[in-house]
Structure formats: structure tokens, C-alpha cells
Amino acid sequence: MRRIAVLTGFALLTASLAGAQFVAPGGTVPVVANLPGLNNTDWRTDVSVVNLDVADTSIVLLLLPEIRDGVPEFEPILTDPVPLAAGDQKTWRNIVESLFGLSNKKGALSIFSTGGAPLVISARIYTLGDNGGSYGQNVEGVLVAREAWAPGIAHDDFYRTNFGIYLPFDPAPGAPVRFVVRAYSPDGALEGVGNITFNDAGLQQHSLSAIGVDGLLDGYLHIECLDPSVAFFAYASRVDQVSGDAVFRQAKGRQTDLP
Questions:
Q1: Is the Cα torsion angle 109, 110, 112, 114 positive or negative in sign?
Q2: pTM for this predicted structure
Q3: Are 133 and 180 within one domain?
Q4: Mean model confidence pLDDT for the chain
């Protein structure tokens, strides 16, 4: 199963490099979830995929696990090809459970068309309100390399911020991929710093508290990969401490840094 993840991850990454931020035969949702959260939230993810081609195609979805304390929470799951007619849209409600059969789990999703058809992908993580309706955040994947930044973060009594890094392929044996994550105040003062190491493909998400941040009213993140040849996805999620509502901040890098 791990070998499948390696091969599929590299295939997706290769397909996505040229058009990662645009319409392309592959795409990424850097975080998907089906699990409870703080303040009576219950997060789930809906994903929609549109086939823009004039011909029918099929799509394959690869769910890679969240990594906690250095250990993947589950084995990667690769779906069978899913038919998608020309011009059609396919939507999965609560995709982690409905398609992959998992609950109380979080991960990252890579999607690509088997025949090279251009796809448009959208996703939303949300929770249902007690009195009807829902609230949450749209999720977008932006491919970056070397370093990336996410502004508009806060970590205090009013908001908390989590950051995530999704590495879509397995590192070579004995050659882990390492990141340094730094949080800054608006005037550029360093508020916290931490190291993140990947021995496996997957998602790592942490609170700003994990890198020593306390009482940051407004600031930004700098995420640096110590291997400049590695492409990855990263984000920050700023969550209202009272309501649980959230805002997604995709980390953005320089286009010239992409391999």
C-alpha cells in the first residue's frame, strides 16, 4: 500500500506542477476531515470535481493520512477509477466517511484524471449549526517550494490558529524532509519557531502553541522547507474561539521557486 502511495503521489505531483494553481489534470485538497472539534464543532468535508473535457474520463482519489507524533494515523487509501462524464460534476458529502469509510480522522486528498482531462476541484470543511445552517471554510491547494507565507493569523483569547503542511510523496528512505515554521508579529518580530519532520507522505497539523506562540493578536507564518527541491502544500486556519467558525489561509510562495 505504501508503494502505491509513493508512485501515485509522484504521478500527481508531476501532473500538477505546471498548472497547480490553475485548471489541470491533477489537484489537491490539503486537508480533509471527519472528526469533532472544540466548542461543540463537528467537522466534515465536501469535495466537488468537474470534468472540463469534451470526452468522458475517470478520476482517482488518494487519501493520505494525518501524521501524529511521527506516526501515520492510517494507511493511504487509493480508490478505484470513478467515471466522470464530459462536463459533469461529482460531489461527495462528508468524503472522508462516505468514500473512504473513516471517522474521527483527518488527512489530505490528491485527485487526478486517468486520461489527462482538465479538472476543477473545490472543497469545504464545515460544521452544522445547532439551529440549522452551517459554518466553515473553503479549502484550496497552492503548490509551493522552498518557502511560503500565510498572513492574517492570530492566537489569543479570541482566536486560535492551526497550521498544516501536506507532503504528497514519501521521502527517500533515510532522507526525511524537514521544515522550519516561524511565526511573526506585524512588525516582523519573531514570536515562535518550530521544526517539522516528515518520514512519510501525509499531513501534519499543529497549533501555534506547539511552536511557542502565546498571545499573538495579529501576525504571519513563514514555512521553510530545508530541501529546496521539494514541492509541498501548506496552510493556516484561524478559528474563532467562541463560535468555532474558521478562515482558511493558504500559504503562498514564489512561482520561481517551483522545481
A1: negative
A2: 0.91
A3: no
A4: 90
State the total domains in the chain.
2
For the chain, percent of residues with pLDDT exceeding 90: 75
Same domain? 233 vs 186: yes
Interatomic CA distance for residues 177 and 191, integer angstroms: 24
The strand ranges marked E within 129-176 are 134-139, 144-145, 147-155, 159-167
Mean per-residue pLDDT, 138-157: 94
Mean pLDDT for the stretch of residues 76-91: 97
Report the pLDDT averaged over residues 132-141: 87
Among residues 222, 13, 44, which one has the least CA distance to residue 110? 13
Distance CA 34, CA 63 (A): 13
What is the amino acid identity at position 158? F
Residue after which a domain boundary falls, among 139, 172, 207 = 139
